[in-house]
Amino acid sequence: MEKYRDNSGRKKEIAPLQEAFEELLKAYRLKDKYDERMLIQAWPEMMGKTVASRTTSVYIKEKKLFVKVTSGAIKNEMSMNRSKIIEIIEQKFEKGVITDIVFL
């Protein structure tokens, strides 16, 4: 005899908060936008003080990361190391958050 029945339709196992948050983002199709925002916020941490202090704008459009840099030398250095920067981003975030970087 079942005294209490769970009709809530919820998962029985307890998911850690991070997993629950990830599932929520996926369910509402917000994961890409969330990852993009987190990447923009993490830019100074990933690139370091020198690059961050010379970066005036960072935004993402259609999976391309646009970075406006005030120093021509740093812009040139970053252009030559584009694949390394993408690799750094993919280590911190999952693959596919961005597909290319454009330096302005």
From TrEMBL:
Any Pfam family: DciA
InterPro entries xrefs: DciA-like (IPR007922)
Protein name as it appears in the record: DUF721 domain-containing protein
